[in-house]
What we know:
By secondary structure, this protein is of the alpha+beta class. It has an 8-stranded mixed beta sheet with strand order 17-5-4-18-20-23-21-22, sandwiched between helices. The chain has 36 helices and 30 strands. α34 (942-951) packs across α36. The model is unreliable at 1-17 (pLDDT under 50).
Amino acid sequence: MAKRSENQGLFNLETPAKPQGPVECLGMTFENDEARREHFLGLLREGLEELHAKLGGVPFTTVEDAVERMKSVEKWPMGDGARRRELAERMRHADSSKDLLQRWKDEVGFPHGEIEDILNLSDPPYYTACPNPFIADFIKHYGKPYDPNVPYSKEPFAVDVSVGKTDPIYKAHSYHTKVPHLAIVPSILHYTEPGDVVLDGFCGSGMTGVAAQWCGSAPENYKRDLEALWEKEGRDKPKWGPRRVVLGDLAPAATLIAANYNLPFDVNEFARAARRILDEVEQEIGWMYETLHTDGKTKGRIEYTVWSEVFTCPDCAGEVVFLSEALDPKTKRVKETFPCPHCGAELTKNNMERVFESRVDPASGGTWKRVKFQPALIVYKISNQRFEKKPDSHDLAILRRIEELPYPQELPTNRFPTEKMYHGSRIRPRGFTHVHHFFFPRAAHALSTLWHKAKAYPDNRIKKMLLFFVEQGITPMSVLNRFRSNQTSQSNQVLTGVYYIPSQIAEISVRYRYESKLRTLSKTFYTAFSQSGLAWLHTGSTAQLALPDNSIDYIFTDPPFGENIFYADLNFLIEAWYRVLTNTISEAIVDKPKDKGLHEYQYLMQRCFEEYCRVLKPGRWMTVVFHNSRNAVWNAIQEAMLAAGFVVADVRTLDKQQGSYRQVTSTAVKQDLVISAYKPNGGLEERFKLTAGTEEGVWDFVRTHLKQLPVFVSKDGKAEVIAERQNYLLFDRMVAFHVQRGVTVPLSAAEFYAGLAQRFPERDGMYFLPEQVAEYDKKRMKVKEVLQLRLFVTDESSAIQWLKQQLTRKPQTFQELHPQFLKEIGGWQKHEKPLELSELLEQNFLRYDGKGEVPSQIHSYLSSNFKELRNLPKIDERLRAKAKDRWYVPDPNKAGDLEKLRERALLREFEEYRESKQKRLKVFRLEAVRAGFKKAWQERDYATIIAVARKIPENVLQEDPKLLMWYDQALTRMGEES
Ligand SMILES: C[S@@+](CC[C@H](N)C(=O)[O-])C[C@H]1O[C@@H](n2cnc3c(N)ncnc32)[C@H](O)[C@@H]1O
């Protein structure tokens, strides 16, 4: 066996992956791994057949009967307690028992596929291509039961999702918006200990699993570097050792990649088997890729054939093979304009018409109308030399011969649900409606042969690895592979995230696609790959997890982010080959053709987060990485998280220039976000039940929340203000905590701020627990200054925060403030009513009129900044003169009166909106709407909230987290009470 370098293999384990001797699994001992698999496949088959029998028509007498009987298939995911009752309630509306079971299947995200196909892909109990009925047993055997007496305390931790994108493991298999495992490892090390259980219910290609296992097998150089970095950052040393992991995804295409990444296999056996398959395929269909060199004798091996779309000339109507005319052979560039080969007219791609041709559909035998393509260029090799040529009669004869062969047996014929697909309009009008339409005949035969051989491999685990390997050719060998004349490799030039059929397609050969892939895979997965029993995978919706309550130690997750990537649609082309397809009903996505808007997305995400919250141990953390493209989507996900019971403690975004994280305090961010949220610990939730709606409940929440926040954050030798510790954010979190639990908020903002100042020590505008403040002071002494958060003034609320920041630093007169204020308000939002500086000052701050004692806020500023004013009594004439007309931040005890006045003004304005006959309000005061919604909510006047919300432009409502919270609450409560 070759010697392995530190970075070469994936997991540094010497034990063979395919145990020869007895294996232990879920407390049972099996003669070998094959016996283990057979045993659990038998159980899975029984369960699937039982379900099938029920679907087949054994009638249920009542819903209760159905639920009872499904409970008897005990391990299928039906959630626990309330979730089970809710499911029963939803199923109650089914018409027949068949309908009922189908509803259950949709709810749990049961993929569409025949039993045999699901079994073929599964490797139970570790992996099932459907919901995994064995996962609860896994927790029973290997999880650590939740013990409220075991102390657990961690601060939020940010992740850099751009780390590790060139790592060979990351590149071993692509997936839409993949997060590299090396970006996840530090988080897992921070939040967990060896043996803990990590969960990712939107696992995609399963990188969270790879990261969890990597914690136990990282090479020494990696460990050294990370430990050095953590030491520099003042963190404790990580505890190395593998973590266990539960991975789930709705898409079988995703979980299959994840299973192959995470379950052990014998890489040598895989490499041998893959080699044999490639050789056999070469023998059987190698002739398809032969071409004659220009000498007419020597045989060359085709690397790829470029097919060009055919158009007609607008002048002479002659057919134009686009590539033949537009490609400049010298520069290898496609020309913008070129002459018509028939009449010489100037042509561009846009002034020509597409040509459609009628063909015989090879699957149905019917007529198939499709845009016309013609082979235009062949790139081939003789020995190691590369040549290119135009296809000649010999090449065309080979292509005809291939077309006449019988239909390739493995080639799927599924029809794409184009009417329900966002990208349906890209493919349907051009004649690509079925999976087999996406492959030219030669690629279809090649893939079918490869697939057949991989599927037939006797060893179940190696078979799956072979499918993992072959599957990586499906998309690049399809008509989606663009020919890009300026690129050296054409091996995978598919436009990601869409179904885009280019005008020039590079139809690549088997060798071209697979030879180098096999070499890199064998190197990457060099040796025995992890150990059994660490990773457990299922295929189904995260809205229904078969995990017990309070059983998970940490969640790392990268959920779908609205409407950018249509996972199920994109996976369709792959899953059709597996013959097991995603159940799209529970896909959390914004997808108009599937009747899923932002609201449905939020609802589906909330259900998933509720499950996350149920299974996570109290006091434990969840990291959500989120690719933010639209603020409305970001708000939807935030709201879903809060409504599910999580408390958000930190939101960060990567500052690409600085390479460090910035705190996110506004909603206007269109970047990758890292959200750290925790499940309130059992103590708080329990206590809150008794103290809800009282001051005691408020301060209990604040105390618990402060405990979860970072104490000191520094950057470049400067301390950073921790946004979450500021009074207004603490207030917002406290309000959200109450509202999400349907409890009246007992304190106004001013009362809250006053109470906060009385109870908790304040430093640099942040609040701490008494035991935290000593640590803050100690670390604060070592840095020169505190970096203020940069605030952007876009509306009344941010203007108030900005003014507060200015006036805390320096009480100022109107004249001093005004020019600065005008500079700040350039980004004021269109819908937000413009406010004069004087109005903002009067409603939120105090002005010293020169009479009586100088307020201490101004006094301390003047005495520390003006030598001549030092140590003067507050009543001194000179001091009073200098202080006159300066605005200052009222101390918390006095702010109450001001707030009451302001609230009255805001509510008056809200009343106008309510009574307005306008259908849509164009310009309004968001703060007035917020105040009005809050009051209406406290008074259970949900109808007012809904009525006013409907007058507000949809985008404003969806982009404002506070309005969205009240509105959602009103909708839910209205539904409950009606
Ligand atoms: C952003 S991707 C995750 C990519 C992953 N981080 C990786 O590295 O490959 C989101 C995934 O969520 C899945 N998904 C969508 N709705 C789901 C649901 N209700 N339950 C579970 N998974 C779902 C999609 O199939 C998709 O694979």
